[in-house]
Specification:
Shape: globular
Number of helices: 2
Largest sheet: 4 strands, antiparallel
Structural class: alpha+beta
Number of domains: 1
CATH superfamily: RRM (RNA recognition motif) domain
CATH class: Alpha Beta
Length: about 90
Amino acid sequence: MKIFVANLGFNTRADDLIALFSKFGKVDSAKVIMDRETNRSKCYGFVEMPNDTEAYVAVVELNEAVFQGSTLNVKKSKPQQAVYYI
């Protein structure tokens, strides 16, 4: 399951997300989205967990939890829509 994590602190890194979500099960990957021009965090990211049950528990437990001074917004990621250029 791919999980969307918003309202991250500017200093939160992928390793921080892996450590946080690993409390609930195996984490395949984590990524904090960075601004291309400033190389600063956009304060959101994604975590992928292979076990849907563990991922669901992580979403429920971490949504609105305080992490590194910020109240997280955690939910199941929506499928990415294809972009077509004509």
